[in-house]
Amino acid sequence: MPSTPAAAGVVTAGSDVTLEHTSDRPLDLGLTLAPLRHGAHDPTFRRTADGAVWRTTLVRTGPVTQRLVVTGARTVVVQHWGPGAREAADAVPELLGETDDTSAFTPPAQARDAARRAPGLRMCRSGRVLEALVPAVLEQKVQIVTAHRAWRWLVARHGAPAPGPAPEGMRVVPSARGWAAVPTWDWHRAGVDPRRAATAVRCAQVAARLEDAAAMPADEARARLEKVAGVGVWTSAEVAQRAFGDADAVSVGDFHLAGAVGWALTGERTDDEGMLRLLAPYAPHRHRVVRLLFLDRRPQAPRRGPRLSIADYRTM
Q1: Which of 110, 158, 192, 310 has the most crowded Cβ, counting Cβ within 10 A?
Q2: Using an 8 Å Cβ cutoff, are 210 and 129 in contact?
Q3: Alpha-carbon distance 97 to 24, whole Å?
Q4: From which residue to which does the signal peptide run (predicted)?
């Protein structure tokens, strides 16, 4: 495991916390945190013109707003506002991927250029399971634009205002109790079908046990998530990538992923089984390989058949 640099220059003012984090290896802030953003208008995540990344989160001690800005080649200043500021500040090294160990990773030939261009790409670890799980459930078997629209609507309606001087419109996700209390008609108004809505509510109802999974070994953690009806291997992988910083979690069952990975690595489409065979030599970095392949702007697998239509469950 790589060493975790200690945060330097921690300054507290009331409940607010500012720290300067300097890494001992390259760090690309935008690429590392990008998976935490669910759509261009996600009310929990914002990039501003000054290059800062703003995000909100709900930790055990309360809501918090973070502003992260790069001030040097490997230095990030992170400001925190809100009751959860101290807890979120303590988790900054994991959020920025300091526990992501790439020392034994050798990318496939098809991803080497991408790896050279993005040496600061890391697997972030948010540690917040429900925050990763609800949007993953919303993204099950629908067009991504539909899921992002639902996430935006639900957080805007049921979330709380972001603490501190956050950009206008930023919100904090609902608590587990808040997600469980979302009325049926609001899931419908957000365009979420009853199956996905019921899964999200079940996750919220057992959120305490699911949050504990963040401290478990990856396989055990995913097994715990998959005990919730409606949470399968694809959903648990999406959560593992974001909440656990799992560089090996492959989103098996994704509508396009296997074909795109097969095309990138061999020039031929493949299915999930074929994708796992192709990625097997790169364990425990299979998800890292996938991310690099998608950074590498190589041609996508040719489409077969018509695009999926966007289902609007609000009219059903």
Answers
A1: 192
A2: yes
A3: 12
A4: none
What are the structural domain ranges in the chain? 8-104
The mean pLDDT value of the chain amounts to 92
Token readout for 232 is: 């399968």
In degrees and rounded to multiples of 5, residue 313 shows phi and psi of -70, -10
226 near 233, Cβ under 8 Å? Answer: yes
What pTM, to 2 d.p., does this model score?
A: 0.91
Mean pLDDT of 231-247: 98
The alpha carbon of 97 is separated from its chain's Cα centroid by a whole number of angstroms, namely: 12
Q: Report the Cα 248 to chain-centroid distance in Å.
A: 14
DSSP 110: G
Beta strands in 185-275 (DSSP E): none
Bridge partner residues of 72 (DSSP):
75
What's domain 8-104's architecture?
2-Layer Sandwich (3.30)
Nearest to 261 by CA among 288, 242, 230, 238: 288
B/e letters for 31-51, b = 16+ CB within 10 Å, e = fewer, are bbbebbbbbeebbbbbbeeee
Give yes or no for residue 302 having a pLDDT over 90: no
92 token code pair: 């900054």
CB 232 within 8 A of CB 218: no
Res 305 pLDDT > 60 = no
